[in-house]
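not sure who needs this but someone in the group chat was asking about Surface layer protein A domain-containing protein from Companilactobacillus heilongjiangensis so here u go. i didnt clean anything up, its just raw.
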Amino acid sequence: MKRFTQGLLFSSLLALSVGATAISGAATAKADDNYYGYTALATSVVTVRDTGAQIYNAYGIPTGKYLPMNSRWQTNLENTLYDGSYYGIGADEYVKASDVRYEMKAGFSGYGVQSPGNYDGVVVTSDYGAALYDAAGSPIGKNLPDGSIWKIDQINNVASGTYYRVGLGEYVSATDVRLYEAGFFKAISGVVTTGPGNPTPLYDVNGQLITDRALAPNTKWYTDEFSSTGGTGYLRVATDEYVVAADVYETLK
């Protein structure tokens, strides 16, 4: 296995004014054991297996609708729940990874295996760490610690779900990790001002939406870093908290 190390950021909040706003009713990734979060995918296709595929909502609850076997559907979103990965195929409509064959638009090499594309690694998000599996999805008796970051070189989709290869014959389940996309980082010094109206969303270092808080409208925040992940520019306003550059007004010193 090859571990991907990443420098940890400072821990103090960088606010110039009090403005963090809780989002009412939003679920945090670790507060709800059934919900882990979304990962944006390159435009891809899922093909329903011979058994057909039930459609679920974002929380894994059956909707009572089904997709016919061998039908093909476009997806660009992976939803990771406690029982595995789901792929978005419509507004609040998802299919289980185990019910479909996943193909990236580029890099697909057949039999459910494809290159990781722009993704560089995974971050272990499970409180209990991440079990390791072989290429068939069977446990091999090893584990990765919670919070650790690992390089990947392959995405493997088998009947039990989606797995990422972190070493020779060693895979982690998408249930236990979040994809990490390597990006560009640059130290800066400046102030960002949020716009009027709705709160400004916050994201973590991997570009994942932080669901339980946001920045209040018309507030100023110190920023010390610009990063680009997946073609989107981010400005850091606190430890592992970023805003999309296009969502704020930036003044560099």
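also Residues 1-35, 106-111 have pLDDT under 50 and may be disordered. if thats useful
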